[in-house]
Every structure is written in structure tokens, then in C-alpha cells.
From TrEMBL:
UniProt organism field: Odobenus rosmarus divergens
Keywords: G-protein coupled receptor, Membrane, Olfaction, Receptor, Sensory transduction, Transducer, Transmembrane, Transmembrane helix
Principal location listed in the UniProt entry: membrane
PROSITE patterns: G_PROTEIN_RECEP_F1_2
Gene: LOC101376711
Domain G-protein coupled receptors family 1 profile: 39-285
CDD domains assigned: 7tmA_OR4A-like
Entry function: Putative odorant or sperm cell receptor.
Protein's recorded name: Olfactory receptor 4C11-like
Membrane topology: Multi-pass membrane protein
Length: 310
């Protein structure tokens, strides 16, 4: 990766400089990250091994859990290790790689949430056409499109980052590399790049959130024609997804859809949607989904039985 500046490494200031608080950061985020990885891997393994979770809903949930794991991994391990390090140094190339990974996995999660909303819409509003519209080939094509969309978005972000010349200082007042904190260190007028960044990330966040909210409003409106039992089941599923959407897009829009100014809560808001939301997603989907819980129990019993026979 060719550099266009004199800076070869950056220093991440992290969440805090207080030694005691650093230890708290290590313990708290190690638990969060461990829970995220274990929870999402459990969902991935359960969906892959269960014959009862073969519908498109769980096909998309598989990729949401995969995106969650990658999204958290793009920032959490570095934050955890740096919390015990005296000097949090990250090379220029590693920083650019983190920008790419953060936006690729994050935008992949956004697009999968949209696909899940499409699946719910077809399930509730077009039930007779569901087997044809949401057949396996269509779902696979939709996931491929999501991967391509995430890649294009990430390439756009990394190209903007690579345009920035750095000549010092190299202190990033954040726990990870992202375009917003990097813009503050650039030795040039960043007005145009700010506009390009806002139009890219801001459009992805606000546009996707609008699409999701409109789709769920249509879905909830159409439920008035369903039976009481069908309405209750559909509402349970939709509410879970609406909670996930609000938890993810609220902080995301706060960071990516405003002018490039710094607020004291920026780092904590970023922590919530990059580490907190991936941790909460497995809990939300498993606690409110009887099928997933039953499949996990069967997988657990099968594992215990297999081990006892050895």
C-alpha cells in the first residue's frame, strides 16, 4: 500500500488514560467480545447443523451472525490489547486495513438487515408467493449482492482514507482507525473529502434505516388482516428485528450523518454500535425465537450424547 505522507504509524489514545480505568476496559470488553464470538458462533453452528432451520430467515440470520462476529473483531481485539499497552501504536497499513474491515463488516450487517426485512415482508404480505419469491437461488443471489455492495462501500471509504496526507501529529483520539478521526490529522483542507465521506457513509446509514422503517411500517399495517395468533407470532419476530435496527442505526447515524465535529460521547457511541450491538444481537434473536432455542438444545444434547459414547 503506497503512502502519500511522512507518517508511518499512529498512536491510538484509546478510551481512557487512567491506569485503573484501563484495567476495567480490559475486563469489560474482553467479556463482551468473548460473549459476542461465542454467541454468534453458536448461532452459526446451530443453523448449519439443524434441519429445522433451513428457511430463508435463518439463512440470513447465519450471515448476520457472521457479519456481527467480523464487525466486532475489526475493533474489539485491538481495544482489549491496547488497554494493557503503555503505547498504543498502529502502523499506517494496519490502520488502513482496519478502516476497510470496519466498513466492510458494518455495511454487510446493514445489507443483511435489509434482506431480513424483505424476507419478513414477503412472509407476511405475500404468503402465497413466498416459496417462489424467496427460493434458495434468490436468497443466494441477494447475499452475493450484499457482499458486493459492502465491498464497493468499503473500497470507497479506503480510497478516501488513502487520499489523506499526514505530516504529524500522529495521535488519534479514538480506540480504532476510522475516517472521521483520521480527517482531523490530515495536513490538507478536508472539506471535499468530508462531503464525499458524508455522502457515502451517511447515505448508507440513513437510506438503509429509512428503507427498514418503511418496510416494517408496511408489515405492521398489513397485520391487521391476520388472525390473532398469526398477528402475535409476526409481531414477536418483527419487534425483535426493529429493536436490532434501532440499536444499530441510532449510534451509526449519530457518527456518520453529522458535520465532522467532535463530541465527548463519540467514542462511547462508537463502542456501543461496534461492540455492544454485536453482543446483544445473539441474545435478542435467541431469547425471542423458540425454534433457535430448541435447535440449540438438540445440538447440545447430541454433543453430550456423542461425548458420553466415547
Amino acid at each position: 500500500m503506497e503512502q502519500n505522507n511522512s507518517v508511518t504509524e499512529f498512536i491510538l489514545l484509546g478510551l481512557t488514560q487512567d491506569p485503573m480505568k484501563k484495567k476495567m476496559v480490559f475486563v469489560i470488553f474482553f467479556i463482551f467480545y468473548l460473549g459476542t464470538v461465542v454467541g454468534n458462533l453458536l448461532i452459526i453452528v446451530t443453523i448449519k447443523s439443524s434441519q429445522t432451520l433451513g428457511s430463508p430467515m435463518y439463512f440470513f440470520l447465519f450471515y448476520l451472525s457472521l457479519a456481527d462476529s467480523c464487525f466486532s473483531t475489526s475493533t474489539a481485539p485491538r481495544l482489549i490489547v491496547d488497554s494493557l499497552s503503555a503505547k498504543k501504536i498502529i502502523s499506517y497499513n494496519e490502520c488502513m486495513a482496519q478502516v476497510f474491515a470496519l466498513h466492510f463488516s458494518g455495511s454487510m450487517e446493514v445489507f443483511v438487515l435489509i434482506l431480513m426485512a424483505i424476507d419478513h415482508y414477503v412472509t407476511i404480505c405475500k404468503p402465497l408467493h413466498y416459496p417462489i419469491i424467496m427460493r434458495q437461488q434468490v436468497c443466494t443471489i441477494l447475499i452475493v449482492i450484499a457482499w458486493i455492495g459492502a465491498f464497493i462501500h468499503s473500497i470507497a471509504e479506503i480510497m478516501l482514507a488513502l487520499k489523506l496526507p499526514f505530516c504529524g501529529p500522529s495521535l488519534i483520539d479514538h480506540y480504532c482507525c476510522d475516517l472521521q478521526p483520521l480527517l482531523k490529522l490530515a495536513c490538507t483542507d478536508t472539506y471535499r473529502i468530508n462531503l464525499e465521506w458524508a455522502s457515502n457513509s451517511g447515505t448508507v446509514c440513513t437510506g438503509s434505516f429509512a428503507i427498514l422503517m418503511i418496510s416494517y411500517i408496511v408489515i405492521l399495517h398489513s397485520l391487521r388482516n391476520h388472525s390473532a395468533e398469526g398477528r402475535k407470532k409476526a409481531l414477536s419476530t418483527c419487534i425483535s428485528h426493529i429493536i436490532v435496527v434501532v440499536l444499530f442505526f441510532g449510534p451509526c447515524m449519530f457518527i456518520y450523518t453529522r458535520p465532522p465535529s467532535t463530541f465527548p460521547m463519540d467514542k462511547m457511541v462508537s463502542v456501543f454500535y461496534t461492540i455492544g450491538t454485536p453482543f446483544l444481537n445473539p441474545l435478542i434473536y435467541t431469547l425471542k425465537n423458540a425454534k433457535v432455542k430448541n435447535a440449540m438444545r438438540k445440538l447440545w444434547h447430541m454433543t453430550i450424547t456423542t461425548e458420553s459414547k466415547r
